[in-house]
Structures are given as structure tokens and as C-alpha cells.
What we know:
Layout: H1 2-24, H2 35-45, H3 56-67, E1 70-82, E2 87-99, E3 104-113, E4 116-126, E5 129-134, E6 138-145, H4 149-155, H5 169-174, H6 180-196, E7 203-212, E8 215-226, H7 228-243, H8 246-259, H9 270-286, E9 293-300, E10 303-311, E11 315-322, E12 325-336, E13 360-373, E14 376-384, E15 393-400, E16 407-417, E17 424-436, E18 451-453, H10 459-483
Parallel strand pairs: 6-18
Antiparallel strand pairs: 1-2, 1-17, 2-3, 3-4, 4-5, 5-6, 7-8, 8-9, 9-10, 10-11, 11-12, 12-13, 13-14, 14-15, 15-16, 16-17
Helix pairs in contact: 1-6, 1-9, 6-7, 7-9
Amino acid sequence: MKKKLLIVIIPIIILLIIAITLLVLYFTTDLFRTPSELFWKYLAEAKDVTNILENDNLIEQNTWKTNNTYTSDGDLSLIITQGENSSKQLNIATTARHDVNTERTYADATLKNGDMDLMQVSYINSGDIYAIKCPEVIDTYIGIKNSGLKELTTKYGMNADRVPDSINFNELLNNYKITDEQKNHIINTYTPIIQKYLDESQYSKTNRQLTIFANSFEADIYSISVPQDSLKQIITDSLNTLKNDTETLTLINNLNNLKNNANSDLTSTQEDITQTIDNMIEEISREEFSESLDISVYVNNGSTVRIMVNISDATYITYDNYNSSQQITIDDTTIVESNSDNENNVFNLQEENTSNVEPEKYTTRYIITKNEESGSVINKFQIIPNTNIPEVMTEIEIRLGNLQSNYMLNEYKYYINNTEEQTQKVELSYTTNTSAASQVDEIMELSGSNTAIMNNYEPEAFKSFMQNWWTNFNNVLEEKMNMIGFTEIEDFK
């Protein structure tokens, strides 16, 4: 399992290395004349593509919440459609409060039936204790202490080698980011490899009419075409360099282990990664390399408005950047060979397949969008499994408002439609309002005397307790859901 994960991770990292290098490479001269010089100039002037995954209001909101006493309330609505005239709706009300003086946080979610409260789950963070409570199951908080985690992991019979003694959640989020120093190291290390296999004849310049976000204009296009042999050499040389690039290997290893920290069987060492790199180099050298790469940079009025990457006419990646809107679109085409009548006939294995049936082709589309609207920063993620049926899709939207007069409004939406007729779909929306407060109702201080803390119990006893709690919780939840018409609780598990 570890090797399979590394085989997936290493190509992604290599492509990331190449992408970062291509996107930020910038020649020192300011006077660009050749297509190659203009290509690199406008590619480098594009915004950092990774910014599209960030929400600029998130850091401001988190900082404000840490340093202020506040209250928050929200409404969650879930609508499930299962047929033309059949739909069910679920409503949950939420509240939260934080006391900056005690540094405690409280939150709850209440299942509603009209004005009637059916069931509530609450949460408290007090010091290093994080706990939940469902009074309908047991009127006691159940939690875990964010300290002594290495000892706790060992007590439960798991490998604690890569488990920290406590988790710093802010550091955890920061560990996913690549620092400017790391980016510069990658650029300085891998730029010469890329430049070595490119020459002026591979660059070109054209222009055409372009439409982005409903805006039409003339654009100059600076392109480069990297043939199969050159791309193979770039990847091979990059992999050979990576084997001895301790700084980047450490970055790869940390990101991999951070992602798989909960499962020690999936963590890796630098030796594991190096072995995987050797296997990939051997495989690339042994097999015929059929991949090619084309990159085009679209420029309007001296600004980069689009970058398009074409990988072997099978995968197209388009990055649009105009005004305050950004969008990445990935079209991945899959060809499914049609079954011939003789496919499984052992007497015809050596015969030529004369079937005239064209193979089936479909394209899966992934769309990532970021824009600003009335002070809110909106991130949207869409997946369309088959562009021939665009109605079948999954969409997530996160809208975080900017901080105004110690008040913020956030909206979260989730939508999934499973049929072309839109008769089987799920629509979830959650809106929260948060505002500063001079003081809030007291938040209980948690301790071993009022909370069942996992760290304080023997594993078998706590496992038995939690199994009973979970069984009772599901029974209560099923009863309450039946009251509002959700008879199939399995839909939510």
C-alpha cells in the first residue's frame, strides 16, 4: 500500500516542481523580443496559481476569533430529492460562543421540527480538552486531551513513532504550505534542467479573439511545444536530481506523512521515496514514452489572462485570471474500448480485430473558481463526471465575508445531482452570522471530574463505553429522524 501511494505522490510532486518552475521563472532583462522571452515574461507575471485554493478572508476571520469574545448563530438546511414530486427537508440550528478571557469555546447543533427542538449535540474546548455531549444519550461530555498523544497511541497498541505529543492546529495548517524559500530552492535546482532541453524553434506567437468570464478581447498567444523525447529527458533528469535533493525530499516526505499521520502503515521515509524514484526511472527508461506537452500563455494589454496546458491531447488544464476572478478547469478525457464479440473467444486470440465499433470517449471536468463579490471571497469546486451529461455534477461553494464592524457573514453550499432529469439530488446550505460581544454566558471548564476523557481510561473499557454510546446515539438519531420523515437513516451513515 505504501509503495502504491508513493507511486502516485512522486509524479504529482515532479509535475508540481516543473509547474512551479515554469510559473515563476523570469529572465533578468526587461526588454523581451523573441517569443521565448515573451513566453517566460508573461508566464512569470501570472499570479501564483495556488492562491486560487485559498480564501483571503479566512486568515483574517481566524485571527479575529482568537483575539475576541464573540457569539455566532447559524441555520443549516438539507433537501433531498428522490423523484419528481418527492423531497425531504432537514433543518438544524447552530450557536457558538467564545470567551477570550478563559479561552474556552462552546458550540451546539440542534435538530429541529418546526419550532420544536428534537435533539442536540454540543461541543466544548476547554484548555487542551476537546469534548462533545448528546444529552439524549448521556448527559456527560466525552472527549480527548490534546497532550500525551504519543503515550495514548502506544496504550491503544498503535505505532506512535510519527505521532506528536500534542497537535498544534495552526502549525498543522501551515505545514501544507510551501514557503518562499522552498519555492526558490526548487526553482534554482530544476530550472537548468528544463532550460537545457528547450530551444527557440519550440516557441511561437499568434493572436486571436478570446472570451473569459463573459469579457471578449484580442489576445496575443505565446506558446511552447515540448516533444516526447525532450519531456522524457526533463522528467528523467528531474527524478535523478530529486534523489539527491535532500531539501525537496524532506518536503515531499513531510507532506506525505502529514496526510497519512492517522495511519502509520501509510507513512514513509526518505529511503522509501528514493526507492520509488529509482523504480520510476527504470520504468520510464524501459517503456516507450508517449506523453507530450504544450503550454500557451494568453496576454491582453500587457497582462496574463490565461495559461493553457495540453498533455498529449488527453488532458487540458486552463487557468483564467481576469480582474478579480480566477478559474482552473481540468478536462481529462478517457477512452473506453468497445467489447468485440470475439474478445473472450480463446479460438480467436490470434485473429485481427476487425470490429468497426468506435471506442467510447468521455471527458471528466474539474473546475476550481475564486472570485470576490461585495466584500466576500467565494471559492467554488465542481466535478462533472461526463461533460456529455453536464447536469450530473457535484458542487461545493464557500463564501466567507469580510470583517465589517466586528461582524461577519459566511455561507456554505453543497449540491449533488445524480440524474440528467435532476430527480435525485442533494442540496445543503449553511449560513452563519458572527459578531463581537462584550461578554458571553459562562462556558464550563472541563476536567476529569465532569468529562469522560479518553486519556484517563484503559483502552478496553473506553472502547466498550464508546461502542455503547454510538449504538444509543444512532438509535436516538433514527427515532428523531423518523419524526421529520427521514425513515432511512442509512442514507446519512
